[in-house]
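Final report, closing paragraph on structural work. Over the funding period we assembled a curated collection of sequence-structure pairs, and we close with a single example.
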Amino acid sequence: MHSHCPFGCEVFSGGHFCYFLGRYFSPGKGVVMKARENTLRAILRDAPEWVPNGLENVVMVSSPVVERPRGEGCDDFGVHWSLEEEAEGGTYPTLGRHPIADLENWREQLVVPDIDALDWTGVRAAVAEVDREEFLVRGFVEMGLFERSYLLLGMEGALIAYIEKPELMEELLGAVADYKIALIERFDDEVGLDMMWYGDDWGTQTSLFMPPETWRKTIRPQTQRIYDCMKGRDILIDQHSCGRIEEVFDDIVEMGAAMFNPCQPCNDLARLKREYGDRISFCGGIDSQFVLARPGVTPAEVRGEVRRRIDEMGTGGGYIAGPSHGVPYDQVLIDAMNDEIDRYGREVYRG
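Its predicted structure, as stored:
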């Protein structure tokens, strides 16, 4: 049996989530918890009442820096991008058009965006419209140190340099980290960030792009400086990395990330949850490659994957459900995924 709440939501015997108010209602109890609070509790592993379906009541805002242009042209570091309109993402770095041709002379060839010259008016205006009692504000800073290094040097040149010239790479990354820190400080000063999506794709489908000891020598120290900046400002760190990064997951936890996304299943997610689930939270994990995007997959299989992942990752909080990659899917499958998260994700913490 079900009816409707005053805002048109269906009300089932077990309660309902009102999308107009962003609140969950239980029979006889009225409002249990706002979606903003529940999401924050999920991230902090502090007794959420349901598994959030994505980052509920979180508004993401970008800085004015052009890290990746939407059309053909250069980003603010002078990297040239080409456009393939039918391709996922659209733009891609143009082969051979990277700005640093000689790592030995990187100081003369590196162009760093002038943060003081950026126009933050649009960012301030967007956040001014946000009800901070109802929504968290998450900043978006993409192209972390590894990604920016291969954009500056070209992928082949960067990977060779990490092995053959790690000291020079450390110096270059230090300069990029200086920029990232200044950007984050200004971003936070302008709008007051609750959390930060910080992206740097460190993994392939099977391993890191480089040996873990090389990552620890070059990438980690400067990323730690960026983390320290955010932690010093009480900004929750939502670390994004595609690929299999299990080899350095302990480092990420130790460095102070609050959450890891998008949790691609090429990682042993069940093991990571068991070993680190008391210190870091997880966002994503619903298999994009072999379930959501697999030809011939059925809605029932999608629902089974949702339940399996919630069972695997949801214990004790610390899990926000969603796809393991943000690409287009069949709407029927997305509807099945959303419905199963909303239903099953509200059952697991009732007891």
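The mean pLDDT is 90. The longest helix spans residues 166-191. We thank the funder for supporting this effort.
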